[in-house]
């Protein structure tokens, strides 16, 4: 498996061609420290929580991210936040993530249609796999609340693998593998169909972040987002 140090950029063209972008200094260390206080209830639970967007502070943060001058050009014009997940990886909460695409999103209720699939329920929410036409318009924003180094199980992406659903993970073995470390306040933007993975943390610090999923306001086939901020 190859490893490369591509020049990370936040330009829309880079995101479109590579499937990811890195935006530093979106929030200050003080702002991130305040957010860590807000996430304290999640820190006593399992390694993640998918329900953060129901909280007022998280909704305000979603609005702030959508209008950030370096992030807004990466989103579709009518983008809304549809989910926010808190992730914490540390020596105590450690896990390996194999190569995959993120293909599910929370919706208000199930709709029976031949183009809709992948239905499931997680933490009381209904999830499904949006059609590829919708997936192409979606974007994940991973806001790092503290530094993420090589020893903290950082995100690994495989550039240019974001053009199709069910891109074979085996095909990533001969592609570039880009490890995305991040300073406090950095946002990593990623197309959900980009193949990605992460290793277990090997250090003693924590990798805490908020993972927002952005998508178009309107959905086909009578679907509605569970939340749209």
Automatic annotation (TrEMBL):
One Pfam family cited in the UniProt record for this chain: PhyH
InterPro entries: Phytyl_CoA_dOase-like
GO molecular function, one term: iron ion binding
Cited SUPFAM superfamilies: Clavaminate synthase-like
Needed cofactors: Fe(2+)
Protein name per UniProt: Ectoine dioxygenase
